[in-house]
Amino acid sequence: MSNACQYCGIQMDIPEQGQITIHPKQYNKLSVSMALETDFNQKQNRYYFPFQSPNHLITLLEDWLKDDLHNEWVELLDNHNNQMPITIQHLYERAIQPELTSIIYKGEFSSHIQPIIDLKSKEVFGYEALLRTTNSSISPGELFGFAQRAGLHSMLDQKAREEAVKSKAEHIPKGQKCFINFLPSTIYVPEYCLRHTFNIVRRYNVDPADLVFEVVETEKITNMDHLKNIFETYQASGMNVALDDVGSGYSTIDVLNLLKPHIVKIDREYIRDCHLEKEKQDFLLRVMNTANELGVELLAEGIETIEEYYWLQNNGIQYGQGYYIGKPSPSPIQSFSHA
Question: Domain EAL spans what residues (predicted)?
Answer without folding.
Answer: 93-339
